[in-house]
Structure formats: C-alpha cells, structure tokens
Amino acid sequence: MKIEITGYSDDLIEVDGDLRLEFDNINSDKGLIVSNKRGESVIVDLDFIDGIWRITHNGENLPNWTFELEKAPENDDDIYTDKLTITSLDKLLVAVYDK
C-alpha cells in the first residue's frame, strides 16, 4: 500500500494514493497517525512555516515500511510543500489528530 502526504494551499492537507483524505489544518494544529494491522504506527507532523508545508515523521525504524521525504526548496513560488511517500506491505489506516 502506498500513500503520499502533501500540503495544499495554506490551510489544507491531502493524502493521495491507495487512500484519499483531505482536511483543514489552518493553524498547523493537526497531525496524522498512520498505522497497520500489526499495531505499528507513525506520527506525521505538518507545519506551515514561512509559506511552506514542512512534514516530519517518527517512522525511521519500522520494518516493512519505506519513507521518502522530498523537501520543498526555500524561496520557490511554485513548490510550497514537502511530500512524504509512505509504502507498506500491509494495508494502512490514516487518522487525523489534534496536537
């Protein structure tokens, strides 16, 4: 299963791929929990800083998961978001939480 997480405009977050989700994150006060049926999970934080969505996660050591983080360049009017791609051998569940 594969999902991509990005910011959209200055107040929305999108999850695309095998799951689709869109939610407001106006004050960067929400994050994501991505988990699988084995009980493994990763927390994804999304913060709008200086006009760019910055994405971080805590899943570096999870087996059977891959994380690809493409960082948005500074001072580029066309690219305003990092992009996090998560791939797992298992089906994933995505939940929004209040920070």
Structural features, described:
- The chain has 99 residues and is mainly β.
- It has one domain.
- It has a five-stranded antiparallel β-sheet with strand order 3-2-1-8-7, with no helix packed on it. A four-stranded antiparallel β-sheet has the order 6-5-4-9, with no helix packed on it.
- It contains no helices and nine strands.
- A hairpin with a 4-residue loop joins strand 4 (30-36) and strand 5.
Keywords, separated by commas or semicolons:
99 residues, mainly beta, 5-stranded antiparallel beta sheet, 4-stranded antiparallel beta sheet, 9 strands, globular
The number of E-state strands comes to 9
**Helix- and strand-based class?**
mainly beta
Radius of gyration: 13 Å
Largest sheet: 5 strands, antiparallel
Number of domains: 1
Order of helices and strands: EEEEEEEEE
Number of helices: 0
Outline, from the CA principal axes?
globular
Helix content: under 10%
Q: In whole angstroms, how far apart are the ends?
A: 26 Å
Multimeric status of the protein: single chain
The side-by-side strand order for the widest beta sheet comes to 3-2-1-8-7
Average pLDDT confidence is: 94
Which stretches of 5+ consecutive residues score pLDDT under 50?
Answer: none
The share of residues in extended strands comes to over 45%
